[in-house]
From TrEMBL:
<keyword id="KW-0472">Membrane</keyword>
<dbReference type="GO" id="GO:0008324">
    <property type="term" value="F:monoatomic cation transmembrane transporter activity"/>
</dbReference>
<feature type="transmembrane region" description="Helical">
    <location>
        <begin position="181"/>
        <end position="199"/>
    </location>
</feature>
<keyword id="KW-0812">Transmembrane</keyword>
<dbReference type="InterPro" id="IPR002524">
    <property type="entry name" value="Cation_efflux"/>
</dbReference>
<feature type="transmembrane region" description="Helical">
    <location>
        <begin position="40"/>
        <end position="59"/>
    </location>
</feature>
<comment type="similarity">
    <text>Belongs to the cation diffusion facilitator (CDF) transporter (TC 2.A.4) family.</text>
</comment>
<dbReference type="InterPro" id="IPR027469">
    <property type="entry name" value="Cation_efflux_TMD_sf"/>
</dbReference>
<dbReference type="Pfam" id="PF01545">
    <property type="entry name" value="Cation_efflux"/>
</dbReference>
<dbReference type="InterPro" id="IPR036837">
    <property type="entry name" value="Cation_efflux_CTD_sf"/>
</dbReference>
<keyword id="KW-0813">Transport</keyword>
<dbReference type="InterPro" id="IPR027470">
    <property type="entry name" value="Cation_efflux_CTD"/>
</dbReference>
<feature type="domain" description="Cation efflux protein cytoplasmic">
    <location>
        <begin position="211"/>
        <end position="287"/>
    </location>
</feature>
<keyword id="KW-1133">Transmembrane helix</keyword>
<dbReference type="GO" id="GO:0016020">
    <property type="term" value="C:membrane"/>
</dbReference>
<protein>
    <submittedName>
        <fullName>Uncharacterized protein</fullName>
    </submittedName>
</protein>
<dbReference type="Pfam" id="PF16916">
    <property type="entry name" value="ZT_dimer"/>
</dbReference>
Length: 371
C-alpha cells in the first residue's frame, strides 16, 4: 500500500470514529442527565473528549502525510507526535473533570434508579467501542500511525469503562449499593493513565526514541555478511516517521585497500540497507593498518590492558598518526563512572606507552547486544 492509500485509509477510520464518538457522547449525556447517573455522564464526557481528539487526529494525519519541502526536508511525519501531545492534554482535562465529579459523588452518594435505557446505551457503547478498537488496530498496522495506535488504546479503555458501568448497574439494582462514585473514580483514573501514557510516548519520540530492534538487527546482519569488514561501530539511526529514517555507521577496512575498492564496498552496503530496511545510511570508513609491526605491537599491549578494566565493553578505531596513539572505547551499560574518570583510569593503566595518547570515551546504546 502506497503512502496516499495509507492516508486515505487512516482518514476514513478517523471519520468513522468522529461519527461514532459524537453519537455515543450525545446519547450517554442525555440519558445520564435524565437519570442523574454521574458514572454515565462521566463516560459521556470521555466520549466527548474522544470526539474532540479525533478531530486532532484527523488534522495530525493530514499534516503528517504532507511531502517534504524546503523548510522540512525530512517530511512532516513527526507532527503525529505533536498531535499526540494535544490529544493527551485534552484527555487530561477530561480526566480531571470526571475525577472532581466522582469525588463529589463519593462525598454525597445518592441512590438513583437504573433505567432500561441506561443498560441499552451502555451495551451499545460496549459493542461500538470494541468494533472501533478492532478498526483502529487494523488501520494502525496498515498505516504505522502512532495516532491510530493511540485511538486503539483509548477505545480499549472505553471497553473496560463500559464493562465497569454494567457491573455498577447490576450491583445497584441487585443490592441497592451505590458504587457510582467509585466507578466514576476508576473511569477518571483510566482516562488520566491513558493521557499520561500518550504524552510519554509522544515526548519520547520527539526527544529521540531508540530505533526499533528490528532495524538495528537488520543493519548488523548486513554488516556481518561482508567479509571485507573487520569491524563496525557508532551506528546511529534517526527516525522522522515511519517513512523517513536516516542512519550512519563506521566500518573498519584494511588500510592498504584502494580508495576505489573501499568506496565500492561502502556503496554496496548502503544499497543493501536501503533495499532491506527502507532507509538511507551514510558509511564512514576507518582504515586499519595490519602491516605496521610497531603499531600492531602497541595495539596488542593496549588491547590486553583495556580488557582488564571492567567498565570497558570494547574498543575500536586504533591508529597511530604522527606518533600519536588514538583509539575509542565503549563503556558497559551499567558503568556509573563519568567519562572523565574512565579516561583518567585508562591513561594511568597505559602509562607504559611512550607515545602521546588520545582516547575518546563513548557509550554506544544501539549496539549493546551486538559484539
Amino acid at each position: 500500500m502506497n503512502p496516499n492509500q495509507n492516508t486515505s485509509s487512516a482518514t476514513k477510520t478517523v471519520y468513522i470514529a468522529i461519527v461514532a464518538n459524537g453519537l455515543l457522547a450525545g446519547f450517554k449525556f442525555g440519558i445520564g442527565v435524565i437519570s442523574g447517573s454521574i458514572s454515565l455522564i462521566a463516560d459521556a464526557i470521555n466520549n466527548l473528549s474522544d470526539f474532540l481528539t479525533t478531530f486532532v487526529m484527523l488534522i495530525g494525519i493530514k499534516i503528517s502525510s504532507k511531502p517534504a519541502d524546503e523548510e522540512h526536508p525530512y517530511g512532516h511525519e513527526r507532527f503525529e507526535m505533536i498531535g499526540g501531545l494535544i490529544v493527551s492534554i485534552i484527555l487530561m482535562y477530561a480526566g480531571i473533570d470526571v475525577l472532581t465529579s466522582a469525588i463529589d459523588q463519593l462525598r454525597n452518594p445518592t441512590l438513583e434508579s437504573i433505567h432500561i435505557a441506561m443498560w441499552i446505551v451502555t451495551i451499545i457503547s460496549l459493542v461500538v467501542k470494541f468494533s472501533m478498537m478492532v478498526m483502529y488496530r487494523k488501520s494502525a498496522k496498515q498505516n504505522g500511525s502512532e495516532l491510530l495506535e493511540a485511538g486503539e488504546v483509548d477505545s480499549r479503555n472505553d471497553v473496560i469503562i463500559a464493562i465497569a458501568l454494567l457491573i455498577g448497574f447490576f450491583v445497584q439494582t441487585q443490592y441497592n449499593i451505590v458504587i457510582d462514585g467509585y466507578l466514576g473514580l476508576i473511569i477518571s483514573l483510566l482516562i488520566l493513565l491513558g493521557a499520561f501514557g500518550l504524552m510519554r510516548d509522544a515526548v519520547t519520540v520527539l526527544m529521540g526514541k531508540r530505533p526499533s530492534q528490528k532495524d538495528i538487527d537488520a543493519v548488523v546482519k548486513i554488516l556481518k555478511e561482508h567479509e571485507d569488514i573487520a569491524g563496525y561501530h557508532d551506528l546511529l539511526i534517526h527516525t522522522y516517521g515511519k517513512l523517513h529514517k536516516f542512519g550512519s555507521v563506521h566500518i573498519e577496512l584494511d588500510g592498504s585497500m584502494t580508495l576505489n575498492k573501499a568506496h565500492e564496498i561502502a556503496d554496496k552496503i548502503e544499497r543493501e540497507i536501503d533495499e532491506m530496511c527502507s532507509f538511507e545510511i551514510v558509511i564512514h570508513l576507518d582504515p586499519i593498518d595490519y602491516y605496521d609491526a610497531k603499531s600492531n605491537h602497541v595495539r596488542l599491549r593496549i588491547s590486553k590492558t583495556l580488557k582488564n578494566i571492567p567498565e570497558i565493553e570494547s574498543y575500536h578505531d586504533f591508529r597511530v598518526i604522527d606518533g600519536i596513539v588514538e583509539f575509542d572505547v565503549v563503556l558497559k551499560e551499567d558503568c556509573e563512572a563519568s567519562n572523565e574518570a574512565i579516561e583518567k583510569e585508562i591513561r594511568e593503566a597505559l602509562s607504559f606507552v611512550e607515545q602521546p595518547i588520545e582516547v575518546n570515551v563513548d557509550r554506544n546504546y544501539l549496539l549493546r547486544n551486538h559484539k
